[in-house]
Amino acid sequence: VYAQVLYDFAAEPGNNELSIREGETITITNQNIGGGWIEAKNSRGEVGLVPEDYIEVSNVFDNNASGGFSNNWAAQPEGTETGKTSSNAWPSGGHGHPQAYQGPGNNSNKPMVLITISFLYDVDVYTVYTVFQSGEVGPVWAYPDYQLDCVVADPKKGSKLYGLKSYIEYQVTPTTTNKPVNHRYKHFDWLYERLLEKFGSAIPIPCLPDKQVAGRFEDEFIKMRMERLQGWMTRMCRHPVISSSEVFQLFLSYKDEKDWKMGKRKAEKDETVGVMVFSTIEPEGLPDLDLIEVEQKCDQFNRFTRAMDDGVKDLLTIGNEHWKRCTGPLPKEYQRIGKAFQNLSSVFTSSGYEGEAALTDALTAAGKTYEEIAQMVAEQPKKDLHFLMETNNEYKGLLGCFPDTVGVHKAAIEKVKEADKLVAAGKITPSDKTTMSKRASTMSYSLQAEMNHFHSNRIYDYNRVMQQYLEQQVKFYEMIADKLRHAHSQFTTM
Amino acid sequence: VYAQVLYDFAAEPGNNELSIREGETITITNQNIGGGWIEAKNSRGEVGLVPEDYIEVSNVFDNNASGGFSNNWAAQPEGTETGKTSSNAWPSGGHGHPQAYQGPGNNSNKPMVLITISFLYDVDVYTVYTVFQSGEVGPVWAYPDYQLDCVVADPKKGSKLYGLKSYIEYQVTPTTTNKPVNHRYKHFDWLYERLLEKFGSAIPIPCLPDKQVAGRFEDEFIKMRMERLQGWMTRMCRHPVISSSEVFQLFLSYKDEKDWKMGKRKAEKDETVGVMVFSTIEPEGLPDLDLIEVEQKCDQFNRFTRAMDDGVKDLLTIGNEHWKRCTGPLPKEYQRIGKAFQNLSSVFTSSGYEGEAALTDALTAAGKTYEEIAQMVAEQPKKDLHFLMETNNEYKGLLGCFPDTVGVHKAAIEKVKEADKLVAAGKITPSDKTTMSKRASTMSYSLQAEMNHFHSNRIYDYNRVMQQYLEQQVKFYEMIADKLRHAHSQFTTM
């Protein structure tokens, strides 16, 4: 039995694993390993365990299952890229995207309507995502009254196959049920793939933290990954469309293994993916937009995301350099100052002069204070700059996938522009053309709602991270002042 | 008329001056210029003004005037260096030295006796400097009850020769008379030369601040020179032997020009110079030391000054690097952080999203705060590190001349060791030998008093400079914390 490798997987050394690369064909040698693992052999004849979710055993997947419907929804533009797992006609462009977050919050000017979807993953309703007109900012998503959230915590090393295979399992607890569920990184990755497939054309889905780095069982790495998974989940929870989707609800609150397996299978067979998602979006009571207006909105947002991308990258570059200085030369210098004071103190002690002790004690204490400051300086970036960097890193990822999302809309506009020719050539009916225009309008409202979602989240996030950064900076400088004040008090000139 | 150049003098460009070098012979072309200037011609035929104190007109000085007496006081060791302006037999080694300062202060364990000298410069008494035994620290100078001090201030640009010549005059006000006198740098230099000549064998006389740098009329330079002249004068005032000397009193409190000129002439003819100064030192009630003890004291002090010299130089190197970082890369980085925040703020302003103003204002303010911090960081070294560096620089100079001073004593010890041979050879009498031993003992007491003077001043100076440094450091970090606290208060997450 052959299998196709879907994602890169790097074997953990000494763990009986086999490294595989995306696109590689491998031979299944033992499908009955269990615990999510399969034994396989690569073309070089090497044998080892690979995660079953990373490969596609031949004749299991059928990427064209949902192909029929999408062609009815809008005409396929020629030469445009087709989404990998979505065969519908619109350019999905949805590979490896971030997204935007929590809505304009408790802004009273904006209609707040709980959208009519089930919060139970196993009720199969045809969900409709509504876009409203807000007096203040324009089209916005309908936000739920209750802000979903979750806590990712308590990473535990588990093992399967009688200790042969190790993995890390995180506890995910949604605020709705307060009942924890366990997920491994590969489950998060599965969720990401489903969200990208389903919503990627309308909503930029942010990448998960890096799939694989060396030493994935090291505490430092586990902590960092957990923190980033938490950040990713928080963003997903804050998004009214994502958070209310069946697949996301499944992930947060499945009842048992059986429930999870069934839900997974169902999600993988979901046909409302790619641009089909626009068929589930309803601009409630909003007039159709004209093409020029739609284009202008796209261009404005494109300009903004590009400018912000530059600003964010600039801040990251500077932050990185500052980090290096704070953890490298600067504490080294404070340490040298500290050592120089202590050295002078011990020279003074050797003078043989009476009444030297008060000065030498004070000098030693001052020297030690500067050594403490050196350590504080070196440890500070983890306490403040880290969060500033993480937030900007998230935004860098998010901004990086906006051009693709906007691209989907641009392609739709181009298609509508060609519609007159297609009607004349008899390839589509005038009624098809009207439908296409209407749908381009829906896509534009959806993009605008997404932009507003992005902006309101951005304002919240940057306020929060700047508060956190400055608060820690204040504490840092206050603590240094305190330490130096104490060192100062030990010197005396009578 | 020919003249010998005593010191280098660099002409101020466009000021009608002539550059001259030590050792050069020049021709006086006009001795009646006045204002301390003489017109002269060098060997290349160039004519210009030179300061009269920088040259020695032939047949005016007689370096050997005090030669006779010194040979009676102690036998001249062969092959030892002879002081330039002191023809006596002992190695003076006194070129370009710093010194040590204020005595053990109001320490009640130590006899405090006002030494019997006149505080009026024009009374010609044979001054005796007394060394006492302090129970705590050993031999100490007798310190006056009243601590002399002075203020060097108010540098004024003066001119002579109807504006042809410019110079800077400093106001020197002693705390005794509270009556200011004016002195130009060249007068300080004259005082330095007299003190070096008279006391250099017993007391390390610290160098004056650098004689000449480019742009000597620039405000920055004048301020720095004044500060250093103040430091030098404070050290001289604190020294019980120096401060009570006639020449020093003349400098601080001459009545008028005539008085000053007469006093100068008298000081230049003083015969109690070089090792002759030891004849004016009286170890009161102290037993003669044996040679071994004298040698041990010398060696101990040598070791200490060498170790402290290393420590001080180390601190200076580190301080210099820290200075560079604080005025170069560090503020540049804070400035870039500030600019990055402000840049992000202006990108956000361009979003077109309503309700952005609070965040963008706060971000701009935070950015400006970091720019202010950048400036504070760059200006801080002048407020704290500067004084730490200046003090250590002074001590570096001071420590650098101790080996020479100790050398004078070592040479005397060697001579006494040879005395038996000289007696056997009939070159000196047994009574001469006894006198030599007694005088070596006096020199040792004098050195020990000087060491103790150095130590007590060192303890005072380092306590003071560390207090000052740490106080400014505390203020600096507190001010940063204040600024950041204010910046923090402008962000809001509801």
Walk me through this protein's architecture.
Chains A, B: This is Sorting nexin-9-like. Chains A, B: One of its GO terms (cellular component) is cytoplasmic vesicle membrane. Chains A, B: Residues 148-258 form the PX domain. Chains A, B: Keywords: Cytoplasmic vesicle, Membrane, Protein transport, SH3 domain, Transport. The structure is a homodimer of 494-residue chains. Chain A folds into three domains: 2-57, SH3 Domains (SH3 type barrels), CATH 2.30.30.40; 129-287, 2-Layer Sandwich (PX Domain), CATH 3.30.1520; 309-488, Arfaptin homology (AH) domain/BAR domain (Substrate Binding Domain Of Dnak, Chain:A, Domain 2), CATH 1.20.1270.60. Chain A starts with a strand and ends in a 6-residue tail after the last helix. In chain A, the strands form three sheets. The first copy, chain A, has a five-stranded antiparallel β-sheet with strand order 4-3-2-1-5, with no helix packed on it. A three-stranded mixed β-sheet of chain A has the order 7-6-11. In chain A, strands 8-9-10 form a three-stranded antiparallel β-sheet. Chain A is globular. Chain A contains eleven helices and eleven strands. With 494 residues, chain A is an alpha+beta fold. Chain A has helices at 67-73, 185-199, 219-238, 240-243, 246-253, 257-268, 291-327, 329-349, 357-383, 385-424, 430-488; strands at residues 2-5, 25-34, 37-41, 47-51, 55-57, 129-134, 138-141, 150-160, 165-174, 181-184, 281-283. At the A-B interface, helix 7, helix 8, helix 9 and helix 11 of A face helix 7, helix 8, helix 9 and helix 11 of B.
